[in-house]
Amino acid sequence: MVLKSEDIAFLWKRQMQKGYLKLAVLFALTRGSSHGYRMMKRIKELTLGAITPTAGGLYPALKELEDRGLIKGEWRTGKRKKVYNI
N or C: which terminus of the chain carries fewer CB neighbours within 10 A? Predict the structure, then answer.
């Protein structure tokens, strides 16, 4: 089976999203505190679209990083947003 360049690019992008999402979160947080939605946009911008996180992928990654003590999340009153920082 010979893969087309579009198929290879799709597979590469998918693997990037899986393998580098936590690293991208940490990198995005070096730019300042952020809540989930803003972080999704920031990661997409910083990676030039190579990593485009979804809520279903981002929030488990944030929870794991928080559980490991690598980031800290704080609930902001009034807006019900959890803001993360390193």
Answer: N
Q: Residue 44 burial by CB count (10 A; 0-12/13-18/19+): exposed, middle or buried?
A: middle
Q: Spell out the alpha helix ranges (H) of 30-83.
A: 36-46, 55-67
Q: What's the pLDDT at 6?
A: 84
Q: Which of 44, 12, 50 is nearest to 28 (CA)?
A: 44
69 three-state secondary structure: coil
Residue 34 is encoded by which pair of tokens? 């952020």
Q: What does DSSP say about strands 34-35 and 72-76: parallel, antiparallel, or unpaired?
A: unpaired
pLDDT digit string, tens, across residues 3-37: 788 887 777 777 766 678 999 999 999 999 999 99
